[in-house]
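Hello support,

Our group uses your service weekly, and this is the first time we've seen a run hang past the timeout. The protein is Ribosomal protein L11 methyltransferase. I'm not sure whether the cause is the sequence or the server load. Input pasted verbatim:
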Amino acid sequence: MPWLELTLTVRAEQQPRVEEALDDIGALSITLQDADAETPDEQAIFEPGVGELPLWPTITLNALFEAETDRRGLSEALSELLPWLEPDHMQFRDVADEDWERAWMDQFKPMAFGRRLWIYPWNIEPPTDEDIVVVRLDPGLAFGSGTHPTTALCLAWLDGQDLAGKTVTDFGCGSGILAIAALKLGAASAIGVDNDPQALTASADNAERNEVADRLALFLPEDLDAEPADIFVANILAGPLGELAPAFAKAAKPGAPFAISGILKGQEDELLQRYAEWFDELRVDTQEDWVRISGRRAGTR
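Update from on-call engineer: The timeout came from a worker crash unrelated to the input. Re-ran successfully.
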């Protein structure tokens, strides 16, 4: 069935009252997201501590209602409950009911990265060609299908590395696409790290389907205790990339190639300064509005 979606953008201190009001007028679901997502002001929120509920300074709330719900009635009810809320701050749209997995599979086509690497969905059979390396993918609940520029930048970088017999760490593994690609490209073993247990589940499933599960170890960040890797890659966000630079330096062997992405244009200069303390040969590559920084772990720092 279709749905009616109401979108509001409010300050963090207003969020509890707005969420309560939406619940009072019959919202079937309410989701919160960073109003500054995919901008230079985007802020990452890590796994909160027990009893903590960290939020962004400005929040977008999306509330779903049954399709036949009267928009004017919702606006009037919210205006009574939240007198300060201006009617033009309320945005309505119809949301079609879809089989989201089927829709993704219909839209996701085979994609090439670099010289050899291809990502194929499960509904399309790849050709029998010894000159290409194929990763079969079902992203499931986690981000990472190759369609996003940051993932594409990291996949192309991996395709250009000499991975034969190497160990690889993929921080922020999501669907496991980068670690699995590294294994299919010749890496001896890989470690995937993510703070979302669902991501680790999706990574394990995708690794099993690609017949590399025996060479992929998966960890939550707090459980990771591994030797430095020969190759290091991280596709997260600029904020945590800056904060985690010292930890990433410890996770890479001296001389190890590394690449980081999840960086919007305009955010790279600060990260270049930050990473120069531990990494050499730094370079920047871009795709659309996104940036990849790559280089090598310095030998002695």
